[in-house]
Hints:
Elements: E1 11-17, H1 23-36, E2 41-45, H2 51-61, H3 70-94, E3 98-102, H4 105-115, H5 120-131, E4 138-143, H6 146-155, H7 167-183, E5 188-192, H8 197-213
Parallel strand pairs: 1-3, 1-4, 2-3, 4-5
Helix pairs in contact: 2-3, 3-5, 4-5, 4-7
This protein binds ligand Z5A.
Amino acid sequence: xxxxxxxxxxxxxxxxxxxxxxxxxxxxxxxxxxxxxxxxxxxxxxxxxxxxxxxxxxxxxxxxxxxxxxxxxxxxxxxxxxxxxxxxxxxxxxxxxxxxxxxxxxxxxxxxxxxxxxxxxxxxxxxxxxxxxxxxxxxxxxxxxxxxxxxxxxxxxxxxxxxxxxxxxxxxxxxxxxxxxxxxxxxxxxxxxxxxxxxxxxxxxxxxxxxxxx
Length: 214
Ligand code: Z5A
């Protein structure tokens, strides 16, 4: 039996989007709200979420690793995800917790598939090896104009290897995300993050509340 068939109890939520859309801020706000309401919550992120995953994260995001091939990048994101699932996500879901992850498979499809141009069916085959077919029950896609997102992040002086890519790369990633969302409307709900932070968090809460009641 694959591990996906054992996910009977918890709720698995992923937050997705280009950089600077406010995913990290909103993931924290949602987690706090759920804890207040009595849920047990695991807040985590990709790449990362485990000691091994964080080591892989460093390799992936160091700006000086400019020579990294696209295939190496794809495999490393998936290696970190396999560890994240087996060490953290699956055990938490099996204990009935709510898992919120800041990025998951859709990031790989958007960045390495649509952004880098790696064949989407190849990206999906490697994903199925890493995840065993496990998908979030709910994904919130934070959508924002690319220039606005980049400006927000430059405001906090954050630079990693992918952020050094040109604006065209980030535009391809955003378009990729919108296509992914269009293909899976039941799982993926899009939120406009050009709105003030508080309005975004209310919209996120409405979606999550609907999913918890489902
Ligand atoms: N990546 C990949 O290529 N393939 C994969 O499979 C995976 C990832 C899993 C991880 O970067 C990089 O890896 C990422 C994709 C790639 N690279 N890029 N580009 P990360 O984890 O370090 O960072 P990130 O995921 O890109 O997110 P971020 O840069 O931290 O941004 P964010 O989480 O979306 O936003 P934030 O930190 O919550 O907010 C940014 C700023 O905006 C901050 O000052 C906020 O106060 C402000 N903010 C937030 N919301 C608002 C609103 N509504 N209005 C105004 N200002 C706001």
